[in-house]
Task: inverse folding
């Protein structure tokens, strides 16, 4: 596996999905989803309402990079797709983002993110906080240009539960990414020099996800890779716009 491969060549270096029974076993939901819980990260405490998910390791990988600037949002327009509790929004505000679009299909998650932002961050004159509930970018006003988008999608390729809250957060599948990239491309949401960061593992159809990005004119590369030692391989993809005539380099 060549982690330096980019663009279409990346497809040849991505693993296929794990066996279905292994995927289901690895993604069994906890029994406390419909209770009130608490979450703490970086010294910040977040109240977790019923139906809202607690961030896992893959989400924290994004949160850490937002906070320390490896995913740079300082003075940039940032969209946290699937914002959940709002940790991404809080981290980006502390980094100094100019705009933060906190987007989730789940209204209760958006409300939780807004509460946490108000309590932890408060009013920041140089940062516009814009929480919206909707399917992908449907609720984001036309004409917006974004410098950074992060997404930890529910791309697991097997249905692991009949609970709609679990399905929403875990196993919608790679087809969601087809719509995601289509919206970014068709609405011209990514500003010049903009970056998309998507994290997924081989519990999802990685090749399908990357192919969807390629199909809509994007240039994917591997930003980070983690081998769990149990067959699960996690990729953080950095995805930019292809430059016509530049040989696939972004």
Result:
């Amino acid at each position: 596996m060549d982690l330096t491969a980019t663009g279409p060549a990346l497809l040849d270096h991505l693993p296929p999905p794990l066996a279905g029974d292994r995927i289901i076993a690895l993604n069994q939901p906890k029994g406390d989803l419909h209770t009130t819980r608490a979450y703490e990260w970086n010294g910040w405490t977040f109240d977790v309402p019923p139906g809202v998910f607690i961030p896992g390791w893959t989400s924290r990988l994004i949160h850490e990079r937002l906070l320390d600037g490896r995913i740079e949002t300082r003075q940039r327009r940032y969209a946290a797709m699937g914002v959940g509790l709002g940790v991404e929004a809080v981290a980006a505000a502390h980094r100094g983002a100019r705009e933060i679009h906190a987007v989730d299909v789940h209204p209760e998650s958006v409300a939780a993110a807004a509460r946490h932002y108000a309590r932890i961050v408060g009013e920041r004159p140089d940062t516009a906080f814009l929480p919206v509930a909707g399917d992908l970018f449907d609720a984001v006003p036309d004409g917006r240009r974004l410098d950074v988008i992060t997404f930890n999608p529910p791309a697991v390729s097997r249905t692991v539960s009949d609970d709609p809250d679990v399905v929403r957060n875990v196993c919608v599948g790679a087809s969601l990414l087809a719509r995601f990239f289509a919206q970014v491309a068709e609405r011209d949401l990514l500003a010049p020099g903009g970056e998309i960061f998507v994290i997924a593992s081989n519990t999802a159809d990685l090749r399908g996800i990357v192919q969807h990005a390629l199909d809509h004119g994007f240039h994917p590369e591997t930003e980070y890779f983690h081998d769990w030692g149990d067959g699960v391989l996690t990729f953080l993809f950095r995805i930019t716009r292809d430059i016509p005539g530049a040989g696939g380099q972004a």
Notes: The radius of gyration is 17 Å. The helical segments are 20-26, 57-68, 87-95, 107-120, 164-170, 175-186, 206-215.
